[in-house]
UniProtKB/TrEMBL annotation, chains A, B, C:
The gene is thiM. It catalyses: 5-(2-hydroxyethyl)-4-methylthiazole + ATP = 4-methyl-5-(2-phosphooxyethyl)-thiazole + ADP + H(+). It holds the Pfam family HK. InterPro entries: Hyethyz_kinase, Ribokinase-like. Catalyzes the phosphorylation of the hydroxyl group of 4-methyl-5-beta-hydroxyethylthiazole (THZ). Coiled coil: none annotated. This is Hydroxyethylthiazole kinase. Its cofactor is Mg(2+). GO terms for molecular function: ATP binding; hydroxyethylthiazole kinase activity; magnesium ion binding. Gene3D superfamilies: 3.40.1190.20.
């Protein structure tokens, strides 16, 4: 199944509109190109509707947000909803400032998202802000482990159901869930967290995957998460004793570029709960 | 001739002011350094005149434009004109949104450009917006090929004459033309389009080349286009089976860094029409 | 001593808030991660106080400043001062425009800095703007050499005393001084200046080092300068004949990633004047 999903990305070459932070934007553009899609970055309120109209999907990432770009995120998100385009939210740093938490919550209220992708802390912040599954949140640790995996998967499903979206919680173990089904994904390397923006890259990649596979957003998001993790493994295997996080960053994008559907199908490590 | 042009860049080390998008700005700065020039990035309206005054040339790139930076582009462009400094326009995404098309047209009306560099689609958008060579545009395909090369060269010359600028249309075959003469350039690799910003990098490089060679902007722009394409070839030859677009990006900048006038002269592949 | 200083960074993993330019921001984030600290980039006035509150230190870099971010720099700086957090200033391009010079001077007036790091030209601009050591400035050349090292060290000490901060002047020879003591540092390679943002990276690294070593800011800043220079040497030794400034950029960050306290202690080349 993941094979067909990735093949669809390379065949359909979807055009993905990104409103994203200026820290990792170049890597996001290159990873979208690496998977076979095309990126456009545009964040002015006077053009985001036009740009979204010619695109197939939208990726909203709130890292380095500001009052100017928040307005553009809302406009682009609403336009994407009107057009029936998939929209991904990366709530970078939700919980770290009032502005980020409030902006993420406002986006969730005014825009319908296909996928919400963040770490456990960000997703918990959103779930609390939306009054969901509070009991679970309170108990849930800030790290998904084998021990609390069932609990975390239940939390992801509950929040996915509440938001009517796919929820992707990434970390040592990744969970990608809709209301009914959770993929628990074991790809990836801990060293990926020493690179800035692997999460941002994954969100951009996810937008490409769900845009090329609109009838199966859960599986497309899970495939994107597996692809990123697998790229992290492949890239890690190439590193010499002198290489560090900068070379690792490049090799991960390279690995997406060289990956194909069959390699993804063969390398994906997951179970469904 | 291209040898002397590149040697001039390395000898004169021109300082190039860039108002450019936040996606590829780091690569633009590094490619300007790689060719022997120096970059300054500055986009606030309260400093662009000061910065342009201490620079030798200006590169305006409208990717990720916004209302704040559009004003700065106009101010910097006018100041460069007053000072007699070469100015390059990269109309990224002209045609993709009303804002980009109108901004590009406003820049063309209010600022005199030395070189206008874009892909065929962007340049056609500008030519139509300026009421030029409409018949040619209508017929001209969105890809320059051996079959339509004469037509494309005629279009480039006509638009160059209209704008009194050098026009560089880059793609599988590149055309660099003034009103009288068109360089048709065969350097480059198709894989370069899998990297974000090779076009942006080329515009920044072109600004460095024309600033160091002000008496021959056509040849300087053609030399920059050949240099970028040749770097794409040299870099491609280094790639292993594991390398992808991220490593390719680095190797292209590296190839500019290692290139000299003689290598450019020997590797440039072009004909004049 | 430098061993312990670097070990502290890796052990304490300080969270560093960066308000920095969009040119080199990705490299700044990756170099902060490479040394074992964590970066957050945030520049909106409505969140910088919140973000600074959860961080341990602040790095303010005025490259690509604008009216919106200048306000945020002042707010974040004042908040960091209230919290007793170390603050680093990188006055990129002070002297190149009125806006940069005035902004740097305003920051120096309204915010107390732990370290001020720039090249000799930038630091001279600040010293003149603050009315300090004018006689020395007037005579001091724009390049620190063995010949004028005593004079430059005296200038650095005088400005450090005036500002009650550590002053780091980087160039062929680096000087890191407080009012009493100047480290003259001989690490580094001239080729580092062919990469955009090695100075910006060093400022971000310095913020991490001083935040993890608050009781000895002079030594921490000197250690960061040695670490960056040593990384430049280590990375240079890896370069092939085909590599240029793009690969060199990656290898320098890699070298910080692979460096440890012992390697820094062994490789640091300095004298105290």
């Amino acid at each position: 199944m993941f094979k067909e999903i990735f093949d669809n990305v390379r065949e359909k070459c979807p055009l993905i509109h990104n409103i994203t932070n200026y820290v990792t934007v170049n890597d996001c553009a290159n990873v979208v190109l690496a998977c076979g899609a095309s990126p456009i970055m545009a964040d002015d309120k006077d053009e985001v509707s036009d740009i979204q109209t010619i695109c197939g999907g939208l990726n909203i990432n709130i890292g380095t947000l500001n009052s100017r770009t928040i307005e553009s995120m809302l406009l682009a998100g609403k336009r994407a909803n009107e057009l029936g385009h998939p929209v991904v939210l990366d709530p970078v740093g939700a919980g770290a400032s009032k502005l980020r938490t409030e902006t993420a919550n406002q986006l969730l209220k005014e825009v319908r998202f296909t996928v919400i992708r963040g770490n456990i802390s960000e997703i918990k912040t959103l779930a609390l802000g939306n009054g969901t599954t509070k009991g679970v949140d309170a108990d849930l640790a800030d790290r998904v482990t084998k021990e609390n995996l069932d609990e975390a998967a239940a939390f992801a499903k509950a929040f996915a159901g509440k938001m009517n979206a796919v929820v992707a919680i990434t970390g040592a173990i990744d969970i990608v869930a809709d209301a009914e089904k959770a993929y628990c994904i074991y790809n990836g390397r801990p060293e990926m967290s020493s690179i800035t923006g692997t999460g941002c890259q994954l969100s951009a990649l996810t937008a490409a995957f769900v845009t090329a596979n609109q009838e199966q957003p859960l599986e497309a998001a899970a495939a994107a998460v597996c692809a990123m993790g697998l790229a992290g493994e492949t890239a890690y295997a190439r590193l010499s004793e002198l290489d560090g996080n900068a070379t690792y960053r490049n090799y991960i994008i390279d690995a997406i570029y060289r990956m194909n559907g069959e390699a993804l199908e063969a390398g994906a490590k997951f179970e469904v709960r």
